[in-house]
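Cross-check.
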Amino acid sequence: LSFFGLGNMQNATLLKEGWANHNYLTATEDGKEWIVKFLIEQKKESLENDLAIQSQLARSGIKTSSYYNAPNGSFAYESSEVTAIISSRIEGEHPSRVNEELSFAIGEALARFHTGVTSLPISRQAWLNPEFIESLVIKEGSPLTKEARKLISEGRGIYNKSLPKGIIHGDFCQENLLVNKENPTKIEAIFDFEEAEENLFVVDI
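Predicted model, tokenized:
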């Protein structure tokens, strides 16, 4: 918080959602709330993709977290041990259940993401990409690798079809969206783009 020029921390709470990074809800002495994300699994290079997606979503009118710049212009704090970024807190809550109305809103949000995000500065492959999964031989014992292999094996047929392609979110789940507290079928924001890649749009569904 000091690196970003935001003053002294009043308190911090580790958020339970997410495993790829450690996220803290923090408050400063002036009463403002911030989300501080320490990169654990996410690579620093993918932050460039995050910035590009944030910019494209803003042009599409979709709310998402936006990285805060330090006085020196950097959006990331880096030391020999840790990389951290910070964004302002967005009002909302993670949905506790998904019903028909929220399912429709999720589909609409994905469609807006697919049409609004059209390019990534850094090309990458993620967990729902057959070529990436084939390269994970050294991590064959990982539960995540096994689950990804199972999903791709079950859906193998779709990868051989001529279906629409583009940039997908890759991890659009309840933990990565916020809904309105009074109206839990209204999506307030979407975030967490470390699994974004070029793939079949249907994979996001």
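Strands lie at 9-14, 21-28, 33-39, 77-78, 83-88, 165-168, 177-179, 187-190, 197-200. The chain has a mean pLDDT of 91. Passed to J.P. for a second look.
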